[in-house]
UniProtKB/TrEMBL annotation, chain A:
Coiled coil: none
Keywords noted in UniProt: Cell membrane, Membrane, NAD, Quinone, Translocase, Transmembrane, Transmembrane helix, Transport
Molecular-function GO term, any one: quinone binding
Subunit annotation: NDH-1 is composed of 14 different subunits. Subunits NuoA, H, J, K, L, M, N constitute the membrane sector of the complex.
Record organism: Streptomyces mashuensis
Catalytic reaction list: a quinone + NADH + 5 H(+)(in) = a quinol + NAD(+) + 4 H(+)(out)
InterPro entries: NADH_UbQ_OxRdtase_chain4L/K, NUOK/Mnh_C1-like
Protein name per Swiss-Prot or TrEMBL: NADH-quinone oxidoreductase subunit K
Keyword Ribonucleoprotein found: no
UniProtKB/TrEMBL annotation, chain B:
Entry protein name: NADH-quinone oxidoreductase subunit J
Function: NDH-1 shuttles electrons from NADH, via FMN and iron-sulfur (Fe-S) centers, to quinones in the respiratory chain. Couples the redox reaction to proton translocation (for every two electrons transferred, four hydrogen ions are translocated across the cytoplasmic membrane), and thus conserves the redox energy in a proton gradient.
Keywords tagged on the record: Cell membrane, Membrane, NAD, Quinone, Transmembrane, Transmembrane helix
Principal place of residence: membrane
Length: 118, 200
């Protein structure tokens, strides 16, 4: 099989995930896009491992490690997203602006947060 | 003599630029389905549908692993991604009260910069990859590269230490998720207790 098929598919999947990370507002949809990017990398690892016929099968071992780390990441990420949702009542990543520097614009979330804290 | 020449020339002549062997056709078709499902995942406005299309994309990738003869990774992909990660994502969607129908605010208002960055990255990556690996073929004949036997041997002979470190990492992630979920409850209880004290 031509190496271009998996390599190009992985590149396109990665860019699809990149678009999702940049264009989505809901934090869980951002996590889904991150999963797509990780899977594109996994496909690259497997394809190059099979192409190089590595004696240690480093690509496949690294793929398994990536899958496990992605599972851990999705668990922690979802816990954080749920915590943010319980604290703020929203999971939109572009409404979490506590670290924004300019204090000129009044923050609509700040009042909700103050109410929740009170 | 001639037979030796023919067999020596065989690897060159059997590779056309786009040789249409059965595996390649299957890989191409499954790849198109996977890519389409991924595009729908990042563009649909129905949140639950996005998770379900993600199942199609990840399952398609599992089939691609099978076609690349990495059987063990394919089944691990089905087990972990399709089995647990998507279920976790669906739970997350439901716990954050995701609307079932269309949600108009699933995307940022101005998506053109995201589209531009993604298109530029895709063009650059595909160009570089196609230029670098134009004349490279994967030899899928012979013994499969990723049977469970092979994967187990390499994993527990050469990669034992990273494997054990990974188990520690998974344990840390598990404890971290539990702590993240519990802290808030204690705080809430303390706050409620304080409020009750203030009221009384």
């Amino acid at each position: 099989m031509h190496l271009l098929y998996p390599a190009v598919l992985a590149a396109l999947l990665f860019c699809t995930g990149l678009y999702g990370v940049l264009a989505r507002r809901n934090a869980i949809l951002v996590l889904m896009s991150v999963e797509l990017m990780l899977n594109a990398v996994n496909l690259n690892l497997v394809a190059f491992d099979v192409w190089l016929r590595d004696a240690l099968h480093a690509g496949q071992a690294l793929t398994l490690f990536t899958i496990a780390i992605a599972a851990a990441e999705i668990g922690i990420g979802l816990a954080i997203v749920l915590l943010v949702y319980r604290n703020r009542g929203t999971a939109d990543v572009d409404r979490l602006r506590d670290l924004k520097e300019s204090a000129a614009a009044p923050d609509p979330d700040h009042e909700q947060k103050a109410e929740a804290a009170a | 003599m001639t037979s030796a020449l023919v067999t020596a020339a065989q690897p060159v002549t059997t590779h056309g630029f786009l040789s249409s062997s059965g595996v390649e056709i299957a890989f191409l078709l499954v790849g198109l389905v996977t890519l389409g499902a991924a595009v729908v995942t990042v563009t649909t406005r129905q949140l639950v549908h996005a998770a379900l299309w993600l199942v199609v994309a990840l399952g398609g990738l599992a089939v691609e692993y099978l076609l690349l003869t990495a059987e063990f990774i394919a089944w691990v992909q089905v087990l972990i991604y399709v089995g647990s990660v998507v279920v976790l994502l669906l739970f997350g969607l439901m716990l954050t009260k995701a609307p079932i129908g269309r949600s108009p605010d699933a995307n940022v208002p101005n998506r053109l910069p995201a589209l531009g960055v993604a298109a530029a990255a895709a063009a650059a990556l595909v160009w570089v990859v196609a230029d670098a690996f134009r004349t490279t073929w994967i030899d899928l004949d012979g013994a499969p590269q990723g049977t469970t036997k092979v994967s187990g041997e390499i994993l527990f002979r050469h990669w034992v230490l990273p494997f054990e470190a990974l188990s520690v990492l998974l344990l840390a992630a598990l404890v971290g998720a539990v702590v993240l979920s519990r802290l808030r409850n204690q705080q809430e209880q303390q706050e409620q207790g304080q409020q009750e004290e203030e009221q009384s």
